[in-house]
C-alpha cells in the first residue's frame, strides 16, 4: 500500500509534463493491481530499504515494462510500481547497525591520534623557546652577558621555527580523506622518533644545564639552535617518507568491478595495501561509469526465462531424484543453446533500434527547445530590465517540450533512477546561463558519465570493507590481490610489478648513409 502511494505521488509530480488521461491511469492501475497483491505476502518476509525519494523521472520498473512495448506506449498507458532497488534481510540490518557502532569507535580512534599528534607538535615548538627562557627566569643574575653572536642566534632560532611551523602546517595539517583500518606506519614511526628525540634533549638539558645552573648563556642558546636544526632535518625525512617515496611508479594494479566486469589500470608507487585501496577508490569515483544494476537485470531475466521453459520428469524412481534432475537440466540447456544465441541477437538488435530512434527524437526535441530559448532571449532584450526572465524560469519554460522525449530515452537506456527532475532543471539552467549548445546539454544523458557526475545520495557508499590475505599495513608486492566491498558490488584489485627494462644503445655511423650515384652517358646509335 505504501509503495503504491509513493509511486502515485511520483506520478502526480510529473502529470504536468505528460499527456496521460485519467481513464488511462485507472486502466493502468487495474492492470497492475493483481501483481502487487501477489507480492504482498512476500514483502512480509523481508525488510525493504528504499532509495532516497529524490523525485525520479520515472518508475524503477521501466526495464521490465520496456519489453514488448511500442514507441507510443506512453500515450495510452501508465506504469505504477512499488518495487525497491535493494532488499536485505534482518541479518543485513543487524550487520549494518554493527558497522555504525564500529564507525563510532573509528571516530574516537581518529580524534585520539589527532590529539596525540597536536600535543607532541606543541611540545616540539615550545621546547627551544623554553631552553632559552628558563635560564633567564631561574638564575638571571648569574648568567654571562649575551654578546653579538648570541643575539644573532636569537634571529636564527626565530626564522628556523617559523620555517618549521609553515612546513609542518603544509605537511601534516590536512583535511583527512578517509578513515583507514590501521595506523599509517611511517607517520607513527616519525611521531615516536620525534618524541624520543625531544625527550633526549630535555634529559640532557635537565642534567647538564638545570642542575648545574650553567652560566654560559651563549652555549645554552647554541644548544637550542642545534635542536631546531635537528627538527628541520626530521621534517625533511618526513617529506621523503610520506611524499617522495611513493611518487615513482613501481606497480600496476588492475581494478575490476565484480558485477559488470568494467576494469581500469593504474600505476602506483611504494604504498601499503590500505593506502593503495584509498587511491583505488579515489580513482574509481572519477574513472568508472556509475554502477547501474538495471543493466544487469536483462541477462538474469533472459536466463530465468530459458530455465523456466524446461520440464524435468523423474522416470528412474525417487532414489535418483537429485542427480537425475541435474543431468536432465544440463542436457536440456545444451540442446537449447543453439537457439538461445538467436534470441539474444534479435533482442539486442531490437533494443539498439529503439535506443537510436528515441535518441534521434530527443536530439530534435532539445534542439527545438534551445532554438525557442534563443528566440526568447531576442525578445527579452527588447523588454525593460525588470521584466527579463532568469535562467531558472527559462529552463522551466522549455522543459515541457523536451520532457517526454527525455523521459522515454532514459527509460530505454535504464538511467531514470540517476536523474531527477530537479537535477535536470539545474543542468538545463546551467547550460542556459553559460550559453551552451544542445549537444553540450545532452552529453550528460547520451553518454554515461563517471560516478562523481551524479547525485551524491544515489551512488556514494559511506562504508567500504577491505578484504586481504596480507596485512593491510604491509607494502604492495607482485601478485597481491585484495578486494574492496560495498553493499551492491565489490572491486577486485590485482597487483603486478612493473618489469625491469633494459635498454641498449646501437651506434650508427653517419658515413654509412652516404652513397654515390654514377650515371652512364649513352648516345643513340
Protein model, in words:
This protein is an alpha+beta fold. Among the domains are: 96-246, no CATH class; 251-292 and 459-497; 294-298 and 334-447, no CATH class. It is built from 16 helices and 7 strands. The strands form 2 sheets. Strands 4-3-7-6-5 form a 5-stranded antiparallel beta sheet, with helices on one face. Strand 3 (251-257) and strand 4 (263-268) form a beta hairpin. The chain starts with a helix and ends in a 28-residue tail after the last strand.
What are the key terms here?
cell membrane, transmembrane, VANG1 protein, VANGL, alpha+beta, membrane, 525 residues, 5-stranded antiparallel sheet
Give a count of the beta strands, DSSP E runs of length 2 or more.
Answer: 7
- Along the chain, the helix and strand elements come as HHHEHEHHHHEEHHHHHHHHEEE
Outline: extended
Question: End-to-end span in angstroms?
Answer: 110 Å
| Structural class computed from helices and strand pairing | alpha+beta
Strand coverage percent:
5-15%
Proportion of helical residues: 55-70%
| Major beta-sheet overview | 5 strands, antiparallel
Cα-atom radius of gyration: 36 Å
Strand arrangement, major sheet? 4-3-7-6-5
Helix tally equals 16
Provide the residue-averaged pLDDT.
75
Sequence stretches where pLDDT stays below 50 over 5 or more residues: 1-56, 58-90
